[in-house]
Design a protein that fits this description.
Blueprint lengths: L3 E4 L9 H16 L17 H11 L4 H8 L5 H24 L1 H4 L8 H14 L9 H6 L8 H14 L11 H15 L4 H5 L21 H13 L3 E5 L4 H10 L11 E2 L1 H10 L12 H8 L5 H5 L11 E5 L2 H10 L2 E5 L8 H7 L4 E3 L11
Parallel strand pairs: 1-2, 1-4, 2-3, 4-5, 5-6
Helix pairs in contact: 1-2, 1-4, 1-9, 4-6, 4-8, 4-9
């Protein structure tokens, strides 16, 4: 009998749309802002109109084909999504400059790429490849040549660099300076000028970003979510969260819609806790979903030392007592690693189209939305 229920946030309680918007805008900024690559072909602004946001999202993710591909390969982190999408275009730019600059430009891919190297590439691009055109759709075709899944996708960028530029490198990884730059720039977009310093320790590089944190889209009416979680608490279920959102991005919107209060504070695990664990155990990184860490931490509690979490024996002995509710393959894989039950909600990026996939992998339950969870509990 189920006793503990651990929920994902995006695609279950809150729509992922604003996260995808912020991801697309981050890639757009890194490509077209004069502070980064400064490519021609688009005019960057830190305060785009909603119509521009829709246009950028459609272009960067090739009408969401890139999004669907990345999610299907088990990537659940928007930071990883930005890193993958931008790094691929960076490799293509280096390839375009190679004929004119040779090892002078390909050598950049052998070390760390930070803001200084991007400015250098901007200058070279303006001089030697002024007509370079970004090809967002090519991402899927290149990655489809390999079978990389989950964290391996980030490392697969090194192979693409070898194939396109003839460079032997291992710089493309989650531990790179470029990944950190992508992560921080995403935080600027999502949190906005007022909140970003508390997240990344500095002000936004290009002021004018209002953020999306107060513009979240609940998947079902907040009043109905409140009633659901109140009912579950009254029935005696322990409720927790395992999300790829950092702490501030979890607490603020869920508090605003009066939902956070129904969860055990010791079991609300976020990407901030995952990053702390990765710093403690760098050899285990990345530990974001589908790695089971966030859900195991939620099961054991935030007060449990990370050493106990990473060494916790899996699959758990009482798997029938724990239910994970999520919308993505990454959530499903994490649940299977833990050995617990899994309920898929069809309110993520793929919507009802995800039913066939979850049926194929034999998810324990498939729900139209989170409200149907009461129908599967005793």
């Amino acid at each position: 009998m189920i006793k503990t229920i651990l929920f994902d946030v995006d695609g279950v309680m809150l729509s992922e749309e604003r996260y995808f918007d912020a991801s697309a805008l981050t890639v757009w900024e890194l490509l077209y802002s004069p502070q980064y690559l400064g490519l021609k072909g688009d005019s960057f602004t830190p305060a785009p109109a909603e119509s521009d946001i829709r246009r950028v999202r459609e272009q960067v993710f090739a009408k969401d084909e890139v999004l669907h591909f990345i999610k299907a390969r088990g990537i659940n982190s928007n930071w990883d999504m930005v890193f993958l999408t931008f790094s691929y275009q960076l490799i293509r730019l280096v390839e375009a400059l190679q004929d004119k600059l040779g090892e002078k430009v390909t050598g950049l891919l052998k070390g760390q790429v930070d803001r200084e190297q991007l400015v250098r590439l901007r200058e070279w691009g303006a001089s030697f490849a002024p007509d370079f055109a970004v090809d967002y759709a090519a991402f899927t075709a290149d990655f489809a040549k390999g079978s990389a899944q989950k964290a391996e996708m980030l490392l697969y960028l090194n192979q693409i660099a070898r194939e396109r530029c003839g460079v032997e490198t291992d710089m493309f990884s989650r531990n790179s300076d470029l990944w950190q730059l992508c992560q921080q720039t995403f935080q600027e977009w999502y949190l906005g000028d007022e909140r970003v310093a508390a997240s990344i320790g500095r002000e936004t590089m290009q002021p004018g970003k209002k953020g999306f944190l107060t513009d979240e889209i609940p998947i079902v009416p907040p009043a109905e979510m409140i009633e659901l979680f109140r009912t579950l608490k009254e029935k005696g279920y322990m409720l927790g969260i395992g999300t790829g959102r950092p702490t501030i991005e979890t607490h603020v919107p869920l508090s605003e819609i009066k939902v956070l209060e129904w969860f055990d504070p010791d079991r609300v695990v976020t990407a901030s806790h995952v990053l702390e664990a990765e710093e403690e155990y760098p050899e285990l990184a990345p530990m974001s979903k589908p790695h089971p860490f966030s859900y195991v931490k939620g099961l054991l509690g935030l007060s449990t030392p990370n050493s106990d979490v990473v060494n916790f024996s899996l699959p758990i002995a009482n798997g029938e007592e724990v239910l994970i509710v999520g919308d993505s393959p990454a959530d499903f894989l994490a649940a299977r690693s833990i050995g617990c039950k899994f309920a898929a909600t069809l309110t993520g990026l793929s919507g009802q189209e995800a039913r066939a996939k979850f049926e194929e992998v034999k998810a324990d339950y498939i729900l139209n939305d989170v409200r149907e969870i009461l129908s599967i509990l005793e």
